[in-house]
Write a structure and sequence with these properties.
Length: 620
């Protein structure tokens, strides 16, 4: 059957949601195989992960859509599958994907159980009124405990349906899962007027409603096609050569081509109600494409669809080109990445030591690292990144201001107080690790709000509710928690409020010159320890010079930590085999004077290795 002739009642739009490493991409691979979207020869692992950084790290960064045909009970069904990320930094991708679905597969690792990110994603699905199907993955592992995990699904998620047991790696049970989702996930039903009473007739329509209503759920930039839009058609149909309008920017375009991915690109003549596909409309102005916008026909007066919640960045840093001549290339690259990723914020910035660049906001450190790697791999840009920080509220005698870097700080005598952002956090751990996790949170200035014991058949887990400063969460909290709990602890957090804190600007000086890329805002109680660690890290990383290199950490004019890189020394007295001591002293004084002159000429020229900067940025 031709795709565009598949009736609405045979369309299923669903997403796969789970915690990181629970097998979402592997399950997507098996479904594509079973639906014959690709041949065995064309298949590869993580087939939907198109970015180099996704394949290198084994993670999903971008939600990917694939449309597949499947024959069941003598009917052809169109399955629109969305593979979503699992890491907390890319939670907005999950929320956006759910807007295009009627149901979700909640994938749970049968050997690890329900994790914090799974709980958070299920709450999002409940908010969207979606049908939720629990799925137990990796049931063929020796460590799998399907009965225990099934009880956790009931206790933690409140899902009463019996979970489908599968092994995404081997394909065990995946066909049964496809049959289950076809039977239980409803078809997309468009809005109809009150005088349309025949529901069965409505279900057979391929289009309905006179006005086009499509939701823009994703977009990306193609060097040859311009901006490509991924849309979910909620009402009406989109044809080639149709004139469309984007409501938020009131921008008009003509559709040049459209289609779906299966996962190869398939060009169609139209997208009908319920379908998820792409549009190419010769769009060159990336500012016209706002994720969550409503697309309709030219001249239409439809009301905008409920859009997406705008995700606010929580981590900020400066990105500067190492070569000042690459400023325009960096600007173009960041704008293209922003089109791929609406949660990335960009604004111009300038630092005397680094020149012109950009102040960028991210959803977390992993998000920052992904953008950094894409700038290097996809655009071949060499960049310098300032130390990441969160956004602080500084109250002065003349008002309030938001800052994320010490270079923006007003004079300290003008500052009355500073507020820092806090978050509400849920942590799920086995009860045997509860003491270590509580100590970790206490060390990060956490405030415990609640502690719940979750009883299962063989495993007792604990849910800890904490309030913590965001700055103490975004850096190495994830790694520390995984280390303390042998990989089984998980957490999820959401922004709370700003609270007054003793925040100070910490500067790093190398031979008296401030290194702006390493300056941070930090709590006073942590400043000395952090400053000592940065100085020690730089000492071990900076190459020895012919002169002494002094590394310092300072709060204002107060030095709180110092390290010295010893100079290389030539033995200038080696040729002296005797004579008066003054002869050796003259040679040593001459060497000392020469080193002093050289240091004056070389001032500010001490190179900091890139690996040292990365280590400090990650605080690892």
């Amino acid at each position: 059957m031709n795709i565009i002739n598949i009736p609405i009642k045979n369309i299923r739009n669903f997403a796969i949601i789970a915690h990181i490493d629970h097998g979402k991409s592997t399950l997507s691979d098996r479904i594509i195989e079973i639906c014959e979207g690709l041949t065995q020869r064309e298949m590869k692992q993580q087939v939907l992960d198109s970015l180099d950084v996704e394949r290198e790290r084994g993670i999903t960064v971008k939600a990917q859509t694939v449309s597949l045909q499947y024959k069941y009970d003598d009917d052809i069904y169109l399955l629109n599958l969305i593979d979503t990320p699992g890491h907390v930094d890319f939670n907005n991708e999950v929320r956006r994907s759910l807007k295009a679905c009627e149901g979700v597969l909640v994938l749970v690792d049968a050997s690890q159980g329900v994790e914090a990110q799974t709980i958070a994603n299920v709450y999002h699905a409940v908010d969207e009124n979606l049908i939720i199907l629990p799925v137990l993955n990796k049931v063929d592992l020796p460590s799998a405990q399907p009965d225990v995990v099934r009880e956790q699904i009931f206790d933690l998620l409140g899902i009463h349906d019996d979970a489908v047991e599968i092994s995404a790696k081997s394909g065990l049970g995946v066909k049964d899962l496809i049959h289950t989702l076809i039977e239980k996930i409803p078809s997309p039903i468009c809005k109809i007027t009150n005088d349309q009473k025949d529901i069965s007739q409505k279900m057979q329509l391929t289009t309905c409603g006179e006005n086009l209503k499509a939701l823009l759920i994703d977009s990306w930039y193609d060097d040859y096609l311009g901006v490509v839009l991924m849309v979910r058609v909620l009402e009406g149909a989109i044809f080639t050569k149709m004139n469309i309008k984007m409501l938020q920017k009131n921008a008009f375009y003509t559709v040049e081509s459209l289609g779906i991915f299966n996962p190869k690109k398939v060009i169609l003549q139209k997208l009908t109600t319920g379908m998820v596909g792409f549009i190419v409309a010769n769009i060159r102005n990336i500012q016209d494409c706002i994720i969550g916008d409503t697309i309709t026909t030219e001249g239409s007066n439809v009301e905008p669809l409920p859009g997406f919640k705008v995700m606010s960045p929580v981590v900020f840093c400066g990105i500067y080109p190492i070569d000042a001549d690459e400023y325009n290339e960096l600007k173009s690259a960041l704008e293209k990445l922003k089109l791929h990723d609406s949660s990335l914020s960009i604004s111009s910035a300038y630092l005397p030591a680094l020149g012109s660049g950009f102040r960028c906001g991210f959803l977390g450190l992993l998000h920052l690292e992904v953008i950094q790697e894409r700038l290097l791999n996809e655009f071949d840009l060499q960049i310098t990144i300032t130390s990441p920080n969160v956004l602080y509220k500084v109250y002065t005698n003349s008002g309030e201001m938001l800052i994320d870097h010490p270079s923006s700080m007003p004079e300290m005598h003008r500052v009355e107080y500073i507020e820092e952002p806090w978050v509400n956090m849920q942590i799920l751990v086995h009860e045997s690790y509860i003491g270590s996790v509580i100590q970790l949170c206490e060390d990060r200035r956490g405030v415990q709000k609640e502690l719940k014991y979750i009883q299962s058949i063989n495993i007792n887990r604990v849910m800890l509710i904490y309030e913590l400063p965001l700055a103490n969460v975004i850096f190495d909290f994830h790694d520390k928690l995984k280390s303390l709990t042998k990989g089984y602890g998980s957490f999820e957090y959401e922004n709370s409020e700003y609270k007054k804190g003793d925040i100070v600007p910490l500067s790093i000086l190398i031979d008296g010159e401030r290194e702006d890329s390493l300056a941070v805002m930090i709590h006073r109680d942590s400043a000395r320890k952090y400053g000592q660690w940065v100085c020690a890290t730089l000492k071990d990383s900076i190459d020895r010079q012919l002169f002494k290199v002094i590394i310092q950490a300072a709060i204002g004019g107060t030095i709180i930590a110092r390290e010295t890189v010893s100079p290389l020394r030539k033995d200038v007295t080696a040729k002296c085999y005797g004579g008066d001591i003054t002869r050796k002293r003259k040679l040593l004084e001459k060497q000392k004077a020469g080193k002093k002159r050289m240091k004056e000429y070389m001032s500010g020229k001490v190179a900091i290795p890139h690996k040292a900067i990365l280590k400090i940025l990650r605080r690892s």
